[in-house]
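Input structure tokens:
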């Protein structure tokens, strides 16, 4: 309605809630399980057992990769993630149209 060629819908449970068929493209952001565990422990203050249980209840990386149109590997640092995101935005703009830039 505001003239933007595309929007990003961020939701952790897109696959689990079967929302992907309604999307034009699906982006998965994945990292290796050890990195994922380390980040959950640092972010959420869970004990290791709780963190492993939470991760075990989630859809695995292989399923995310199989369902996704685009995958960002997030095993590195923030600078790596930002570069990968910028590259993906360029790809999405080529496919769906350029986003407006701030004046």
């Amino acid at each position: 309605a505001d003239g933007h060629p595309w929007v990003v819908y961020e939701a952790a449970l897109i696959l689990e809630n079967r929302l992907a068929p309604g999307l034009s493209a699906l982006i998965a952001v994945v990292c290796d399980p050890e990195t994922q565990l380390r980040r959950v422990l640092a972010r959420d203050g869970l004990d290791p057992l709780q963190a492993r249980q939470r991760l075990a209840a989630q859809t695995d990386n292989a399923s995310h990769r199989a369902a996704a149109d685009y995958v960002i590997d997030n095993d590195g640092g923030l600078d790596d993630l930002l570069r990968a995101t910028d590259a993906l935005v360029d790809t999405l703009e080529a496919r769906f149209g350029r986003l407006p830039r701030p004046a």
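The longest strand covers residues 27-30. Strands lie at 27-30, 70-73.
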